[in-house]
Description:
By secondary structure, this protein is mainly α. The chain contains 5 helices and no strands.
Amino acid sequence: xxxEHTFWEKHPGLVWSNPNAGDEVYIRAALLKPxxxxxxxxxxxxxxxxxxxxxxxxxxxxxxxxxxxxxxxxRILRNIGKGFEVAxxxx
Length: 91
């Protein structure tokens, strides 16, 4: 596992205005601009449960940004979950 700072250096555009932001800020920013590979990397680093938790909180806020991202995020999280299931069944 990378250090917090090192991991987020790979994703500099997520929270450009506050490079010292906490993980939850970075994760939520990634969820609001969903890209499969980026969310997969975050799931591998922090766990799929953490990603799902942050998404649940964003959905509860029901902002226009969360509504706009919802279909993509839910599809991506579902696919990552399926991939994790397949990977764990092969071990």
